[in-house]
Amino acid sequence: MLYRLIHSEKANYPIVLLCRVLHVARSSYYAWREGESTRQEGRAADDALAHEITVLRIASRRTYGVPRIHAELWRLGHRVSRRLASCIASSPHAHSARGLAVARWTERFRRVTCSP
Question: CB of 78 within 8 A of CB of 52?
Answer without folding.
Answer: yes
